[in-house]
Amino acid sequence: MKKIFLPVLSVAATIVVLGGCATSQKVPVVQAGDNKLSCSQLQTELNRLDQVEQNVDSKKGVTGTNVASALFWLPGLAYTYYDAGQATEAINDRRTHLTQLSNDKDCQ
Predict the structure, then answer these.
(1) CB-based burial, 77-86: b 16+ in 10 Å, e otherwise
(2) What's the number of CA atoms in the CB half-sphere (13 Å) around residue 95?
(3) CA torsion sign, 63 to 64 to 65 to 69?
(4) Which residues are CB-neighbours of 52 under 8 A, at least 6 positions away?
(5) pLDDT tens for residues 72-105?
(6) What's 83's DSSP letter?
(7) Given this model, what pLDDT does residue 9 score?
(8) Among 32, 34, 38, 60, which has the highest number of CB atoms less than 10 A from its own CB?
């Protein structure tokens, strides 16, 4: 029984630890064609950013992956939080850019 259990446990731990290194989606702050977007398209893009931000935020906090990272490989947990912070910063910068475009076009 030990001969089977230890390799299975090792493989499971490796998968969990490597899963803890998953990166968050990064959005480019400025995209080609941004200045050609209509007011409704700008609003759609802002709404999409809200969804992306929720996805990034879901990787923070007490999740199974983060708990496993904390137990087995602490740098993986630290990287998850660092990466999520970088993704959030890019989202906020893009939101600022799109809001400025919206204001320039006098969108409501």
Answers:
(1) bebbeebbee
(2) 14
(3) positive
(4) 25, 27, 87, 91
(5) 766 766 777 788 889 999 999 999 999 999 999 9
(6) H
(7) 47
(8) 34
Question: Does the structure show a pLDDT above 90 at 40?
Answer: yes
Q: Is 61 left (phi over 0), alpha (psi -120 to 50) or beta?
A: left
Secondary structure (DSSP) of 35-64: GG--HHHHHHHHHHHHHHHHHHHTTSSS-H
C-beta of residue 47 within 8 angstroms of C-beta of residue 102: no
Q: Which tokens go with 64?
A: 């199974």
87 CB burial (10 A radius; 0-12, 13-18, 19+): buried
Do 39 and 107 meet the contact criterion of CB atoms below 8 Å apart?
yes
Q: How confident is the model at residue 20 (pLDDT cuts 50, 70, 90)?
A: very low
Type of residue found at 44: T
